[in-house]
Amino acid sequence: MQQHYLACDLGADSGRLMLGTLDGDRLTLEELHRFSNGPVRAGESLHWDIPRLFDEVKAGLRKAAARGLPIASISADSWGVDYLLYDAAGAVIPPAFHYRDPRCPVGVKKAQAKISWPEIFAETGLQFLPFNTIFQLAAESPERLAQARLILGIGDAFNHWLSGIARSEVSLASTTQLYDPRRRNWSPRLLTALGLPAAIFPPIVASGTRLGPLRPDLAVETGLRGVEVIASCSHDTGAAVAAVPGTGDDWAYLSSGTWSLMGVELALPVITDACRDLNFTNEIGYSHSVRLLKNIVGLWLIQESRREWAKAGHEFTFAELEKLAAAAPVFVSLVNPADPRFLSPGDMPEKIAAFCRETGQPAPATPGACIRCVYESLALLYRRTLRQIEQLTGRRIGRLHIVGGGSKDQVLSQFAANATGLPVHTGPVEGTAIGNILIQAIARGNLPSLSAARQVVRSSFETITYEPKDAAVWENAFPRFDQLIARTTPAAGR
Questions:
Q1: Residue 296 and residue 254: Cα distance in Å, rounded?
Q2: What are the start and end residues of each CATH 3.30.420.40 domain in the chain?
Q3: pTM score, whole prediction
Q4: Mean pLDDT of 71-84
Q5: Which residues contact 238 (CB under 8 A, 6 or more apart)?
Q6: 425 pLDDT band (50/70/90 cuts)?
Q7: What pLDDT is recorded for position 175?
Q8: What mean pLDDT comes out for the span 85-91?
Q9: Phi, psi angle pair for 418, to nearest 5°
Q10: Under a CB-based contact definition with an 8 Å cutoff, are residues 236 and 381 in contact?
Q11: DSSP conformational letter for 17
């Protein structure tokens, strides 16, 4: 018997409502509604337009209702770290800050004046990123915090809006740097150290928690009736990793989109000095699995460059940029994708050129040279990150699975294989929505386990394998890149 599910997948660049149909061991996907997302500038500040996103989701719900299908459930997922504050009347306190807002470095200084970075890491196992929720909350005004009666991550806020039930799903809670993965709860030590009111943090629930029916008023307004709301994995990476079609334990994953998130799946967190010094993170996945990973600035570098060229009247498709990059000269210049300058919006081609000039390299003079520089740098950073994972876990990685929108990028996928010396398996593209839907299916008893869900992925979606090429060329380039990273990466926590 066919089962139908909805995934509300909110990305930092776009959102979508996906219909998933599970028929035995086959899953099919259909995009019902897609909409843009991105930062809204207000003076020097960056915000999210949450009311518009709510309206877009409602439009998607109406399209789902129009299909006349017996839809079993819906779940929302989103990027991590950002949040909404609610007042005593249950209204969202504006604005909803964007993680690239310039307040974040201020929050880092304020937080570390109260508790040291080594203590924060020892409590959470989460890598240092200046926009982690802990630092954003440290940057909040006392007035806003005094008003707040509830805090929810973005994906959890949408599940709350859909169901009326306010819960923090564990995968999203684990991105805040306020979650203790050993006690599986909010960290009283960190909340106390930062003066954060514990009462505003809702109960944490497991991935796949059934929250309840769609709110009656939404059911009437959209025509979507008889639908249950489930907290699958509210963090998009948690959902994407659930959809990795891996078998055994010798694989690593790369969830590739605006961010590149590279790691392995473990049973227990790795909270050691070595993990802290290498700036890895321990996020939580389905069934309390641990995603030991590193957040790497990913296709953001290309997305921002493309936007800048469009402003100048040069509209490039991503496919056109791939071709230009493939034709550009090899290893002319490299960048450190983790350089702080690349985090904020702005003239990305000029930021890349400035980095190259400052490090004694030729500045890329054409779009093709610029994108080639980004591709080669990302691929070499993937290699470096995989070697660090092996160092931290003692596990030998035999293959890399790339899921998400970035898996469509053939040039970058081939470069990843070349740089790592590993076979790279790409797909599924809609990994986040697939994982979201399959966790719903497990929660409702339509699939028995995560391993069965991954078998559904293998049965339902095509993957492409890239074998390593040009080994000597990439081997020779790596020491130069490794030295560049060592010269230009500040110590974690600073």
A1: 10
A2: 3-236, 246-427+463-494
A3: 0.95
A4: 98
A5: 77, 171, 172, 207, 283, 284, 285, 286, 291, 435
A6: very high
A7: 98
A8: 98
A9: -60, -45
A10: no
A11: E
Whether the Cβ atoms of residue 133 and residue 96 lie closer than 8 Å to each other: no
**Pairwise CA distance, residues 373 & 234, whole Å:** 34
Q: Is 315 exposed, middle or buried (0-12, 13-18, 19+ CB in 10 A)?
A: exposed
* Spatial CA neighbour of 137 closest among 122, 159, 120: 120
Task: Please provide the average confidence, as pLDDT, over all residues in the chain.
Answer: 97
Between CA 364 and CA 11 the distance in angstroms is: 30
Percent of the chain with pLDDT over 90: 97
Q: Which two tokens stand for residue 348?
A: 């990305």
pLDDT score recorded for residue 106: 97
> In the CATH hierarchy, which fold is given to the domain comprising 3-236?
Nucleotidyltransferase; domain 5 (3.30.420)
Residues 6+ apart with CB under 8 A from 113: none
The confidence score (pLDDT) of residue 489 equals: 86
In Å, what is the CA distance from 118 to each residue of 106, 107, 136, 282? 19, 16, 18, 15
Q: Which CATH class is domain 246-427+463-494?
A: alpha beta
Give the pLDDT of residue 1.
84
Per-residue confidence (pLDDT) for residue 494, from 0 to 100: 58
DSSP for 335-376 reads: --TT-GGGSS-S-HHHHHHHHHHHTT-PPP-SHHHHHHHHHH
| Rounded distance between C-alpha atoms, residue 68 and residue 225, angstroms | 10
The percent of residues in the chain predicted with pLDDT above 70, rounded, is 99
Residue 240: CA atoms inside 13 Å, Cβ hemisphere, count?
A: 37
Tokens of 297: 């600035």
Handedness of CA 391, 395, 397, 403 (dihedral sign): negative
Local structure of residue 235 (DSSP, 8 states): B
Whether 304 and 345 have beta carbons less than 8 Å apart is answered as yes
What value does the mean pLDDT take over residues 150-179?
98
Catalytic residue positions, numbered = 236
